[in-house]
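step: validate -> pass
step: tokenize input -> pass
step: predict -> running
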Amino acid sequence: MESEQILSRIDLNLLIALSVLLKERNVSRAADKLFISQPAMSKTLQRLRDTFDDPMFYRTSDGMMPTEKAQYLGKQLPHIIARLEKLVSLPDFSAALCDKTFSISIPPLLAHGCILDLYERLTIDAPNVSISEHPPMSNPFQLMENGELDFAIYSSSDVPALFSATYLGNVDLSIYAGLQHSLASKDKVTLEDCLQYQFVNLIVESHSKVAFSHPVESFLIKKGVERKIKFSSHQLQVILDILQTTDNLLIAPEKLASKTNTVAKYVPVFHFDLPKRERLKFYLVEHKRTQDSAAHAWFKKLLIDNLSNFNQ
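step: predict -> pass
step: emit ->
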């Protein structure tokens, strides 16, 4: 029989009662210590006898004397109770001592703007913490249910009941060009100017062939125009390399230009200035099972602090 099956027959409260009985050697005093009635304590003693198939105590003129088995168990109880206390009283969280790996599903353009800062912060504050970055998904919930994902950046607050969504903010969009592009040196660039060129497009859904739908698409449709997409890829670095060496353009978050190493290679040539209701909204989704975890709460705050750079 497996140990779990054997232990399932034992009420752990009996071990606490036994520990008190061994100290008090009196049913009434043990009942007072445990804030229960004497009859209830007597029933507990009988359950101890039944569980361990032993009388456990003998009544003598000097009080209750433990049997050999009770004395043997009594020697083990301090260690067992101390271990149980550790199970129910988790230590205070320490970022410096944390060695967890946090996994997050995040759009590449957001990751490009915040992961480096987050990584540098972790290197200083939590050197043993690891990050596992995953591509964004239209349905991350199964992986989060299975524990394969801790967090996901999502474009809607409409999530299943076992999940919660924290609003991160919204982003406006810009059209980016490489420094060598003719539009990069032009004083005033219109949308019509940009639409004369072909675009590179970042596909952010890793499990389907459906490209991410920018809110700007509906904006363009309303104006009766569309962009010409020359190349689509899941690989952000490939997209940025093409942008740097060709006259293709890229639609990306407006604040991408302020992030590390970006402004030196690419420049925003046109801002959409979308109304807030049409801007791209982001939510940080987590499973409710991790909401009471001090480690997850700490990492969530770091994420929100870094992602707030994109909040308009």
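step: describe -> The domain at 3-88 is CATH 1.10.10.10 (Arc Repressor Mutant, subunit A).
step: cleanup -> pass
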